[in-house]
Amino acid sequence: MKLSILTRFLENYAPLNYQEDYDNSGLIVGEADQEIHSALVALDCTEEIIDEAIVHNCNLIITHHPIVFKGLKKLTGKTYIERVVIKAIKHNIALYAIHTNLDHVHNGVSGEICKRLQLKNPRILKPKTHLLKKLVTFCPVAQAMQVREALFNAGAGQISNYSECSFNTEGYGTFNGNEQSNAFVGEKGTQHQEQEIRIETIFRSQDERKVLVALLENHPYEEVAYDIYALENKLENVGAGMVGWLENGMEATEFLSYLKERMNVQVIRYTRPGLKKIRRVAVCGGSGSFLLGDAIAANADVFITGDFKYHEFFDADKKLMIADIGHFESEQFTSNLLTGIIREQFPEFSVRLTEHNTNPVHYFF
Fold first, then answer.
1. Annotated binding-site residue numbers for a divalent metal cation
2. Cα dihedral angle (25, 26, 27, 29), rounded to 10 degrees?
3. DSSP E strands: which ranges in 180-225?
4. What is the pLDDT of residues 253-275, one digit of tens each?
5. Which NCBIfam families match (predicted)?
6. Could you tell me the pTM of the whole model?
7. For residue 250, which of 109, 110, 119 has the smallest C-alpha distance?
8. 280, 115 Cβ separation under 8 angstroms
9. Which residues define the annotated binding site?
10. Are 189 and 179 in contact (CB under 8 A)?
């Protein structure tokens, strides 16, 4: 199939506008309309991963971490990043990354940790803002239902567990068409008053084009009046980290053993636990120390993530236990997640899980 079909699916699962500003998710090497016949999935794109793709005749590599974070000024093969990109191009292998946008969806990286730990009622720890917009338009009463339905079908009106949400008020609009106008109602050169419905509804930023097309194609007026407002509201099911509940509380040492076994880790760096049992658990795949304050505010008993620095451990301040399991370790099941959703959506397409452990960190016991 064409690469664009697969990337469109992935970007619907984890939209690109959910990624952080510093990130580089999306298609990194390749052309959207090229044919792909097999994909290799890994956490990182290294030279070993490229070689593995060549051996198994995969012409697409999907990774969580993008091989290119910053702009490349040269491709001379002096760094591993340059060598990976050069080899991928030589062998016509497309490279695609799905990074912080996958971190920020409910069934993403942190969601996978919640599943591994069997947490109940998981929710986003720090919901994102600036992802919602409001549409306001004005429509004749008789056509209001048709316009609303078209907007809803285009993705507008979704609020958490509710769909088809809108607010409607009735009033009248005025207009006076000139000789070149082709008004739906009224006469040219004469001010007309029409009973109208003011329709207000919200939509996700990435759906703006679809929503506007639906509006313009279904509204009866020649010139459609509408306003779009950027909203500060949080999108509660999109954001960083997650927090959920253990069905039964555990003593700290019991929980650490449970965590080690469920997440398949060798080492856990942790702060001194408090006296109460572990019930409420906050998690974040990758480097999550920036969420410590949010975990404390959520009354979590433990915060699981990776890459805490020495002095940051003090910031737990006996309010919760930090459990640093490592960056790779917290994200290692992301490849399984991606492989699973692709196989479910495209059962005839060949997708392989890498045989290599790309963790650059090793432990000596």
1. 64-65, 103, 327, 331
2. 0
3. 192-204
4. 999 999 999 999 999 999 998 77
5. YbgI_SA1388
6. 0.92
7. 119
8. no
9. 64-65, 103, 327, 331
10. yes
